[in-house]
Structure formats: C-alpha cells, structure tokens
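Section 3.1: Structural characterization of target chains.
Under the original work plan, the team committed to producing a structural model for every single-chain target entering the pipeline before any wet-lab resources were allocated. The record below documents one such target. The sequence was received from the expression subgroup and is listed exactly as submitted; it comprises 279 residues.
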Amino acid sequence: MGIMSTQGFAVPELLWDVTDLASRLGDSSLKIVDVRAGEDYAMGHVPGALHFSVYGVNTFDTDEAPLKSFTRMWAFLLGLRGITIDDTIVVYDDISGMSAARAFWFLEYLGHGDVHLLDGGFNAWRDSGQPVMRDAEAPKASAFKFEAVRESVATYQDMLDAIDSPEKVILDTRSEKEWLGTDKRAARGGTIPSAVHLDWENHLTASGKLKSADELQAMFDARGVTADKEVLAFCNTGYRSAHAYLVLRMLGYSRVRNYVGSWQEWGNRASCPVVVPES
C-alpha cells in the first residue's frame, strides 16, 4: 500500500490548487509555466505565466549519447524561458494533464526540488473567477544549471532489466487499444513482456482534476503496482507515463522512473521483445 498522510496524499505539496497559486501571484521567486499550445496561451493565461510548449520535444533513442543530448536541450530551452534551478515552479495545462506532468517530471529529472502542478489547470483557474491576462513580457534568458537524476528516467536497457523482475513492475499507461496492439503506433504493436496496464486517463475526474489518493491507490494496488517495488512507466512518447510518475510520487512511491523513449523506441527497436495480450 502507498504511504498515506492525513491530507490523503503522502506528498501533497507537489499539487497546488487555485488558492495556493492565487496566494503566491507576484512572488518574485515564483515562475508559472503554461505548457498549452501557443494560441491558447495568447487567448488568456494566468497573470505572469511564461509560455513553454513541451509537446514535440521528444527523444526515441535512450542510448547514453542521445539521452544526454536530449537532456541538455531541455535545460537550454528552460533557460531561454528564464527558468532557473532556484525558482519555485508551478506548471499547468488545460487540466491536470499529461503535458504539465511531462514538464513536472523533466524538471525533477534535471534535479529541481521545488516544482508543482496546478490541479485542474487553467480551466480550474478561469472557472474559479481568478484573473486572466493576454499580455506577456519577454522572458529574460538565464542558464539552467542542472544535475540529472538518473534514477528518475528509464532507458530501454532499464526496461529490459525489469522484465519479470520480482522487485520491479512495468506500467503501461497507454489506451487499451495500444496495449492490445490494435492501435499500432510503431513498427510493432502490443506491450512490453510482464507489463501491467492502467490507462492514464483513469487518474482524472470528469472535471480534469486528480482523483483522491484512496481511489488512485486502489487502482495501482489492484495491478500489483505497490510502493515496495520500483515502478517503470511508459506510454508512446513519455507524456502519459510522466503523469503516472507524478501520481506515484504524490502517493509516496520512492522509486519511480519514466521511460522517456517509450513505445516509439521500444516498438521500433527490433531487439526489444514484444507481447500481444489477450483481450
């Protein structure tokens, strides 16, 4: 079972609600990062928010050299937005979505220790009557100094090592059709041997906020995704699995990795084994 606190989540401070963010507006140490599409940001955003669309910034090769290059590229892009390792950062999407979770995961992977996600995203902010602005200041570029946390990322070799390991569990966060191989988004369809399946959308309520800790924990427990194991999550490109990373971190899991290459690497790398589950 996950390690529960009186607030429900073991690490509740990773998730901010609208009131938390509203109380910090104007704080010079706070960087608010809007990861939605540029046109959505232009139509209205949280006052003071920087725009940084993370969608499309991917790698499908987790060998050492390309992974290092990808990591440095992310740090460079964050620096262009004026984000530093010393800032308090809150990221948001339309809802508590996978792009915001991807930004959250990457910042933690880069060693940032003060990053948060806005629960319900911009929709919750707007719907609660909080101020919205369209104007934006040009960010002042900075150097994002980092030290990557290797234990937060999984490579294809890490996934190979986790297959059938009693101390590890591979979590497939894709849709059921992708899991079954009927929605094939790479050269091969199916899943990684010994993986368990939980579609990431099951993390969310109908309004786009995270479900309660008890609801989430019950779903993971039912699949053997327990806090005594190392969890290696994957999807197609590392976004949905980043959402699982965030949720499991909040539940108190201490060993969670996001397989950043995900199915786009695994399904196209002929040396990686694939199974097709029975429906």
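The beta strands are 15-16, 30-34, 50-51, 88-92, 115-118, 153-154, 168-172, 196-197, 230-234, 256-259.
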